[in-house]
Amino acid sequence: MHSDTGISSIVASLSLQSVNTPIEREPPGVSAGRSIALPDKDIEKTVSLHSLPEELQIKIFRFLEFRDIIGLQQVSTHFNSLIKDDHTLVKAWYRRFSLPHQDQLKKILPAEDKEQLRNWLRPFTKDEALVESLINHREKVYFPALFHFSKARLMSQYKKYDLVTEAVIADNGQPVPLTLSDDGRHLMTGSRRGKAKIIGQKADGSWEEKITISHQDSVRSATFSSDGRHLMIVSEDRTLKIFSQGGDGSWEEKLTISDDLLAKSFTFSADSRHLLIVGFKGLAKIYGQEDDGSWLEKYAIYRDPGVDSATFSTDGRRIVTVGKDKTAEIHVQKTDGSWEEEGIIFHDLSVSSAIFSADDRHVLTVGADDKAKIYGQKVDGSWGEKVTISHESSINSATFSADGGRVVTASKDNTAKIYDQKTDGSWKEEANISLYHRVKSASFSPNGRYVVTTSANKTVKIFGRKEGGSWEEKLTISHDEKIVSAIFSPDSCHLISSSRDGTKKISGRKADGSWVEKATICYKSSFSSEGFSADGRLLVTNSSLGEFKIHGLETDGSWGEKVSFFRDVSTAFSRFSAGGHYVVTTIVDHKVRSHRLHTDYKVQIDKLSMKLDSSNN
Questions:
Q1: E-assigned strands of 3-149?
Q2: Do 363 and 458 fall into the same domain?
Q3: What is the pairing mode between strands 307-312 and 295-302?
């Protein structure tokens, strides 16, 4: 086995979560619900965990949760060394994230670009030996977990951060449509006179203009594909343009579409190979990327009286459309690349929404008939109804858990219902949560173990699933005004709730599984936004009055204010990039800024200032 001194020292000195609560242990003589009686004289003859082969010990450790592994490290130097060498704690921390989020964290990590990895770490440490030690593991399967975990540890050592402005992009005071790619490495700005620019971030953190895009009229909206390599732009001149990035980093126009659709929505598939456009005229079209990089129309869906909305499946091979005729239709791409209708879902009244489960095997629809329906795919490929979820009033929300194995609905009849898929493929009601006021929304945590509800009585409730399958209330969070949002962190350990009164509350899960309120953030404005960093360690919030704050998770489990700044403006926006480099993008009075967090020195400089030329006005 190998040992990494630098990395191990970080793991030993800090913890991602408070461990003041003792580790839960079974009472003597009890295991898995069965009693085991051992005569006193035989106790000394029993085999201890220490006496087992190291390979078996490691296998056992890998079944434990993060908090239990921290406690186990404190039992003996042998366990401590074994856990460090195997990176067991690192792997347990990474397992807190859902599989899709783990995949995202892996994709955004430039494992082949050593210099960029160094640039992501150096703001948080001056220990070059540690930086190189981490980078030397980039070929390992566990490298994404090790990198993100170690960087989070380094961040925990600092009470305050510095915010460095890396780029300023101004538009001379005119409103600018802004689109930011998921990885935060590209953004598009537009103007009223049809000019748009794609700005890209280089490996050293600086920004440069990639391409200027011209339309006959102002840019209305735009979206990047999930991999950040394609961009769809819609202009008021009724044209749609697709731009793609080549291997050398340059961008070029791939397709111009005459917008006969009057597009009201457009979405890239998760694999970024298809584009779905829904028009105001009730027509939906699918465009696909060819092997040579070009884009072509692949399929058109005509429905009478029209298509209201359409959604891709996770793998991009299916879409489900919602029409005005009380049905939702499923369409599939065949092996030869063509598309065809595959199934129809019926409601008694109009269908308001339809979504796929993460595994693409189920579709969840909501109708104006106060019903939600789960349809599943059979062995022969056809689709059939699995269960109908009925409420006594309209359904406000319905969603799958991240693994697709559960559904939760929220209704105006003051209830939220949770359905679970059984091993035989059937769906059964697992919980009927009754609240005193209409339930505005209900959603799962990323790991599917918790549900958060928001109600008309200004409360947020967190429910947790017990071992037997029942659900119990974990925490009630009260606000003074209407609830705006309630969002779990990516690791499911924290929740941020926001109210119209400008108050935000951070709640967190303790080591014993209970939930408590941990911090309150107050703003003067009722309009604000918030977002967690990709690793769940930081939270950025802002108000429409130009207040910005970044809070971070401390080593004792509390949340502390790391950065606070104010700009006297009428509008403001901020968000973290999806990457592992803690980039914050802000919009203040139509000026877009990119900021990077630093912890080991104080600087406030502008590395680059770019202004849109006067022709953009």
A1: 30-31, 34-35
A2: no
A3: unpaired
